[in-house]
From TrEMBL:
<keyword id="KW-0408">Iron</keyword>
<dbReference type="GO" id="GO:0051537">
    <property type="term" value="F:2 iron, 2 sulfur cluster binding"/>
</dbReference>
<keyword id="KW-0560">Oxidoreductase</keyword>
<keyword id="KW-0479">Metal-binding</keyword>
<dbReference type="GO" id="GO:0016020">
    <property type="term" value="C:membrane"/>
</dbReference>
<dbReference type="GO" id="GO:0008863">
    <property type="term" value="F:formate dehydrogenase (NAD+) activity"/>
</dbReference>
<protein>
    <submittedName>
        <fullName>Formate dehydrogenase major subunit</fullName>
    </submittedName>
</protein>
<dbReference type="GO" id="GO:0051539">
    <property type="term" value="F:4 iron, 4 sulfur cluster binding"/>
</dbReference>
<keyword id="KW-0677">Repeat</keyword>
<comment type="similarity">
    <text>In the C-terminal section; belongs to the prokaryotic molybdopterin-containing oxidoreductase family.</text>
</comment>
<dbReference type="GO" id="GO:0003954">
    <property type="term" value="F:NADH dehydrogenase activity"/>
</dbReference>
<feature type="domain" description="4Fe-4S Mo/W bis-MGD-type">
    <location>
        <begin position="6"/>
        <end position="62"/>
    </location>
</feature>
<keyword id="KW-0500">Molybdenum</keyword>
<dbReference type="GO" id="GO:0046872">
    <property type="term" value="F:metal ion binding"/>
</dbReference>
<dbReference type="GO" id="GO:0043546">
    <property type="term" value="F:molybdopterin cofactor binding"/>
</dbReference>
<keyword id="KW-0411">Iron-sulfur</keyword>
<keyword id="KW-0001">2Fe-2S</keyword>
């Protein structure tokens, strides 16, 4: 028997948007250790518990290793040829009978940039539809919308170094100590050692709230109001940056007019934040040498998520906190490659590099490279696709690496829609809940089994190298997509993901200089990347990304959230835990993590526990108008009053949070309003 060598291979973490990179030591398929490197551009010698111990899932016995084809209520193992031939013939039949828009494509923020690029190319150039979306629809689309409207690009305006060097960090509706731990460590260090000020605004007293100079707990769904009131107060007091606004920002008068009702007194009445606290927040912004605002799902997953994201950007514009080091807008990307999935075009209205589908010149340019005429009509997002399935208009779907059945809101509706599909293909590493609705399941490779690039929350592109060979007959997603495209008439011959990146960077000016030979080892590039390879860590130094180079203030527009009623009287907040990644499909297969947190639970406040006589560990039923779950209670002062918190990871179908969430969506982007959910509680 040949002796197995010990190997050390560099990869990029797949568990969050911070984008830590490190070496993985292996012997055969055994992962011996994860070793951070001083050369890693984001994390250096740090990782969090997921990056260090979260990799057992790659060798899980639950991994898919063969293509599966449905036969009645079960699946049989098939060859790749049989599975791909079947998919190609079904897709061709649906397209020929009902047109290309009868097919939908769901891409993934867990797979590489190159794989996202190929998925959208398959949809647009091979099938002929813009019906392509990714899971940023569930999280960061509202932040993208708010930034595109105000400053013109959809990405963090600076790097994690800029967050660390800001005079004041404001964290709104985000829990980076659990969801972006290494980034949180940078803030903790700056706060403790370098005098950085920290404001945390959240419903839940999490670790960063405990460390903050000022922790503010507003009423649910009212962030827009305190943001607008503080901005108005800053303008009224003359603390705004007049020269910055005059020289670089449009729409000031109309914006000020839109702030007319947002007095501090009105804000106190709506948000519950006392006027003196609002004034203190404004003073801290005035006195700071650079303000960085970090936000995540607590802001975006509301019906007014886009408007609140725009209000954050407005505040930064009015105070001149763009285009200089240690300041700016930092929507925290959740999945490791949310940024890249969007950048490389898996969105229904955007081609790679944020070129609009509606831009005829862009379509013509890309179409010339791809050798086809591109579809003109913007496609459906994933919410619209589900509705179209129910109406019988969308008949076939190809979904890659997304646990839509548990991660989308209103799970019972999602399950009903998926079961109506005429033909459904799921490509994943496990037989997920979503895959159980499929007609064909294709076994894919996780990040450790392939090459490619990921783009982290600061727009940084990094290479990952193949640590392990694919398990069984599993294959990297890019190879599967290429094989399918060629069976549908394409003639793709990419030998390596570097060939795909070379094509993508040739058609997207934003990525012009991204090349694999510039990304060797721990090297990285931050887009926009000029042809000569120069990165742009700090955006908007000289110009904003609108055609006239100026930013544009968005008018204040608070979307009034849902409120409790006599029956559904508890506000349900939801999100991640440090030890688990989203619904838990990967981390539940990692013993190093599950022994720390084996299942989910619901956090309730000491006040609620006492009022209803509920003991720590009690089994309760939570009921919303859309479904119910059963889960055990953790009594904790992290939550207050009638606020409860249910993490989104679960090992049981009885405790999945999205059985409770409903159909409400952000009005501009259709991101589900997960955070506008009210429930009632029964003790079992
Ligand atoms: Fe991975 Fe994020 Fe943890 Fe870094 S902070 S090791 S990217 S999960």
């Amino acid at each position: 028997m040949r002796e197995q060598r010990i190997r050390k291979t560099k990869t990029v973490c797949t568990f969050c948007g911070v984008g830590c990179s490190f070496d993985v030591w292996t012997k055969g398929r055994d992962i011996l250790k994860v070793e951070p490197s001083i050369d890693a551009p984001v994390n250096g010698i740090s990782t969090c518990v997921k990056g260090k111990f979260g990799w057992d899932f790659v060798n899980s016995r639950e991994r898919l290793t063969k293509p599966l084809i449905r036969r009645g209520d079960s699946f049989y193992e098939a060859s790749w040829d049989e599975a791909l031939d079947l998919i190609a013939s079904k897709f061709r039949k649906v397209r020929d009978e009902f047109g290309p828009d009868a097919l939908g494509f769901i891409s993934s923020s867990k797979v590489t940039n190159e794989e996202n690029y190929l998925m959208q190319k398959l949809a647009r150039a091979v099938i002929g539809t813009n019906n392509i979306d990714n899971c940023s629809r569930y999280c960061q689309s509202p932040a993208t919308d708010g930034l595109l409207r105000t400053v013109g690009l959809a990405g963090d305006s600076g790097t994690i170094d800029d967050i660390a060097r800001a005079g004041l960090v404001i964290i709104v509706g985000a829990n980076p100590a659990e969801a972006h731990p290494v980034l949180a460590t940078r803030v903790k260090r700056a706060h403790k050692l370098h005098g950085q000020q920290l404001i945390v605004v959240d419903l839940r007293r999490h670790e960063m709230a405990d460390r903050a100079d000022l922790f503010v707990r507003p009423n649910p769904g009212t962030d827009h109001v305190w943001l607008s009131a503080i901005t108005r107060y800053i303008i009224d007091e003359g603390w705004h940056d007049e020269a910055f606004i005059r020289n670089r920002v449009d729409g000031f008068e109309a914006y000020v007019e839109s702030l007319r009702d947002y007095t501090l007194q009105y804000a106190e009445q709506v948000t519950g934040i006392p006027v003196p606290t609002l004034i203190r927040m404004a003073e801290m912004i005035r006195d700071a040498d650079g303000v960085a605002i970090l936000w995540a799902m607590g802001v975006t997953q509301q019906r007014g998520g886009s408007e609140t994201s725009a209000a954050i950007s407005d505040l930064l514009l009015v105070t001149g906190n763009y285009g200089r080091p240690g300041a700016g807008a930092f929507p925290l990307r959740g999945h490791n490659n949310v940024q890249g999935a969007c950048d490389f075009g898996t969105l229904p209205n955007w081609l790679p590099g944020y070129q609009l589908v509606s831009d005829a010149a862009a379509r013509k340019r890309l179409g010339a490279v791809w050798g086809v005429e591109l579809p003109e009509r913007p496609g459906m997002d994933n919410q619209a696709m589900l509705d179209a399935i129910v109406r019988g208009e969308l008949r076939a779907m190809y979904l890659m690496g997304e646990e839509m059945a548990w991660v989308d809101a209103n799970a019972n509706h999602v399950h009903a829609a998926l079961s109506q599909l005429e033909f459904f293909v799921v490509q994943d590493i496990f037989l997920s809940k979503t895959a159980q609705f499929a007609d064909v399941v294709l076994p894919a490779s996780p990040s450790l089994e392939k090459e490619g690039t990921f783009t982290n929350t600061e727009r940084r592109v990094q290479r990952l190298y193949q640590v392990l060979p694919p398990l069984g007959d599993a294959r990297p997603d890019w190879q599967i997509i290429m094989d399918l495209a060629n069976r549908l008439g394409a003639d793709w011959a990419y030998a390596h993901p570097s060939d795909i990146m070379a094509e993508a960077s040739s058609i997207a000016p934003l990525f012009a200089g991204i090349q694999y030979d510039r990304l060797e080892g721990y090297a990285s590039q931050i887009w926009p990347v000029a042809e000569d390879g120069t990165s742009t860590p700090l955006l908007y130094k000289d110009r904003f990304a609108h055609p006239n180079a100026r930013a544009k203030l968005a008018r204040a527009n608070w979307i009034v959230p849902d409120t409790p009623d006599a029956v559904y009287d508890l506000h349900l907040n939801n999100g991640r835990l440090l030890e688990h990644f989203h619904e838990g499909n990967m981390t539940n297969q990692s013993a190093g993590l599950t022994h720390k947190v084996p299942d989910t639970f619901v956090e309730i406040s000491p006040e609620l526990a006492s009022e209803r006589n509920i003991e720590d560990g009690a089994l309760v039923r939570l009921i919303s108008p859309h479904g119910q779950v059963e889960v055990r209670v953790m009594v904790t002062d992290r939550v207050y009053g009638k606020e409860i918190y249910l993490p989104m990871n679960t090992v049981s179908e009885q405790s999945a949070v999205n059985l409770l969430t409903g159909p409400a969506v952000d009005l501009r982007t259709h991101t589900p309003a997960y955070k506008e959910t009210y429930v009632r509680l029964e003790v079992l």
